[in-house]
Amino acid sequence: MPVVSLIAASLIALPEIDPRNARSLLDAYPPSAQRQGKSGAIYVRRWVDQAGNTYRCEVLQHFGDDVFREAACKPLLRLRQRPAVSPAGAATYAVLTTMLKYITPGPNDDEIEALQQPADVSLDVNPVGEHVPGFSIAVMVDDGGSVSHCEGFEGASGNHVELACGRARELGQLIAGDANGNPVAYVTTLLVRIAHAAS
After folding, report:
1. Number of domains in the chain
2. Which domain holds residue 109?
3. CATH number of the domain that 155 lies in?
4. Is the pTM of this model over 0.85?
5. Residues 6+ apart with CB under 8 A from 136
6. Which residue would you say has higher pLDDT here, 195 or 135?
7. 175-197 pLDDT tens trace
8. Under a CB-based contact definition with an 8 Å cutoff, are residues 83 and 91 in contact?
């Protein structure tokens, strides 16, 4: 199970939204909330097939009015994107988590703006004199939920990537299914946050 860090070209490619379709996310701002100056955020998980079509969407958490929860998945299910690519170079499934924020001037806009996407992996490390911000890792997950490949994105520290990949393997990952519920291998990104433990 290789750990690849600080690479110039990633072996795993995540789905890329076609810029022509990105506008549909902006158009999904609930008109009634916009008129009333309401802001909201939705933390969603979406499943993308080998052709780049989003076939499932689930709201994991929402902040603000329920109208944002109700409107979250509709534009995501219509998104078309370039499919994910496995380390072997073949199109594959992807499971992605995203926080969408809809902000307009109003009573809770600062609160919504300040929200951060929850970390998928937390690392407790002893301080080594360097500040390490959060970073992301890309993982290939087999159809049983085990990490089969893990790599850091450019700019992530090699040691931290190795720790994060090891932690992702320990935790295990979601067993994803295709549109018919059959288990499938997939790629995903995991957000890593560093907590500095006292020495």
Report:
1. 1
2. 3-196
3. 3.30.2420.10
4. no
5. 152, 153, 156, 189, 190, 191, 192
6. 135
7. 999 999 999 999 998 888 877 65
8. yes
